[in-house]
């Protein structure tokens, strides 16, 4: 499920960003071997590590196929969240209560947050992906679409191999190279791996304590703030200035309350900065997003996935089912692509024309709505598309 990559994978050196790609696959692998040797790795270990690597066309096919992220929030959330997943999450919380206590004490990450990731990434470890990890990383590095994302992960996997924690022939995971119950990239494992069960190894595939502790440390490393909320469902008044909504605008939560925003559960954290997000416009669900919510984007960069994971974390800790409201009709995938093309022609940076309502498209929609005198709630509708 993690098809948008962690910021750790994006923080690359200029040499990696300019890494070669394409050409003969065998020649590409030989180049990787030479680079590994130049980094000081033993040549025999390098040859052993790369000895079984193969190009995997199924990885490229998976990279191009991300249609699930075209779903609106309510549909996406209902697809991922079931009573079975909620019940299993509560059971896992009881089973690993001591581990979660330790995570909350050492890293400040609430158990619902990690339970939600565990559920969405691998269904609590039951399916962790069956792609050979090294094949996936080398295939994606050879592909010229985003080699700078994946090439560093190959050398991180090599270090794990030298530590005895990676088998180039047998280690499997997601198509994009993530490993284990909470799906972490090799560099993330090197930086944040924790031996939670005390056996001397970091085994994210077979040890829930290792996986959960590592996930908690990674979130802390990414900026998680202990003891603070991440997302809170709210109700909004009809006369709000919709142009102030979205992640681009942050106000003290108390200021949102003064404008008539009211919590559906608990109390508004008045002293914390917060953004008011409307995933399906002013007539759909509404949430206050606190600073911890932004940390989710360091794990995954899909707005819909992040919002669903944050909401599910609340549900696992006793929060209510969100009020779906009555949002205006949205756009189909093809309509969204047409909208993105029109926005791009107007000079907006919407990223790839992929039919996904990402941050760039939302920001552009909100600007254009203001220009056209429409409610600027960042929710694209057929009426907006026709107006353009």
From TrEMBL:
Top-level taxon: Bacteria
Signal peptide feature range: 1-19
Domain Transglycosylase SLT: from-to ranges: 25-313
Domain annotation Peptidoglycan binding-like: ranges: 332-388
Sorted UniProt keywords: Signal
Keyword Signal: yes
Pfam families: PG_binding_1, SLT_2
Database matches in NCBIfam families: MltB_2
Protein name: Lytic murein transglycosylase
């Amino acid at each position: 499920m993690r098809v948008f990559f962690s910021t750790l994978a994006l923080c690359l050196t200029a040499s990696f960003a300019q890494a070669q790609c394409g050409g003969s696959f065998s020649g590409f692998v030989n180049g990787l071997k030479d680079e590994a040797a130049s980094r000081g790795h033993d040549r025999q270990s390098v040859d052993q590590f790369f000895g079984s690597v193969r190009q995997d066309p199924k990885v490229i096919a998976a990279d191009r196929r991300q249609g699930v992220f075209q779903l609106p929030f309510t549909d996406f959330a209902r697809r991922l969240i079931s009573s079975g997943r909620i019940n299993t999450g509560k059971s896992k919380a009881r089973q690993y209560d001591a581990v979660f206590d330790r995570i909350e004490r050492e890293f400040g990450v609430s158990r619902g947050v990690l339970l939600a990731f565990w559920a969405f990434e691998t269904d609590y470890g039951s399916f962790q992906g069956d792609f050979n990890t090294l094949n996936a990383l080398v295939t994606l590095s050879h592909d010229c679409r985003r080699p700078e994302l994946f090439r560093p992960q190959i050398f991180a996997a090599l270090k794990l191999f030298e530590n005895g924690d990676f088998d180039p022939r047998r280690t499997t995971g997601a198509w994009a190279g993530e490993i284990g119950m909470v799906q972490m990239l090799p560099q993330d494992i090197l930086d944040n791996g924790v031996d939670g069960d005390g056996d001397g190894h970091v085994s994210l595939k077979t040890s829930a304590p290792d996986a959960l502790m590592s996930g908690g440390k990674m979130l802390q490393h990414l900026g998680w703030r202990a003891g603070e909320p991440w997302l809170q469902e709210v109700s909004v008044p009809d006369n709000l200035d919709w142009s102030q909504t979205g992640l681009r605008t942050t106000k003290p939560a108390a200021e949102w309350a003064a404008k008539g925003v009211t919590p559906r559960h608990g109390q508004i954290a008045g002293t914390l900065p917060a953004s008011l997000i409307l995933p399906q416009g002013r007539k759909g669900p509404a949430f206050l997003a606190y600073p911890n919510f932004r940390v989710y984007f360091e794990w995954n960069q899909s707005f819909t996935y992040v919002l669903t994971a944050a909401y599910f974390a609340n549900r696992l800790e006793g929060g209510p089912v969100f009020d779906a409201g009555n949002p205006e009709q949205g756009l189909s995938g093809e309509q969204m692509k047409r909208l993105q093309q029109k926005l791009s022609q107007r000079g907006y940076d919407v990223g790839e024309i992929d039919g996904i309502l990402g941050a760039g498209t939302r920001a552009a929609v909100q600007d254009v709505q203001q220009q056209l005198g429409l409610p600027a709630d960042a929710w694209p509708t057929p009426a907006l598309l026709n107006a353009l």
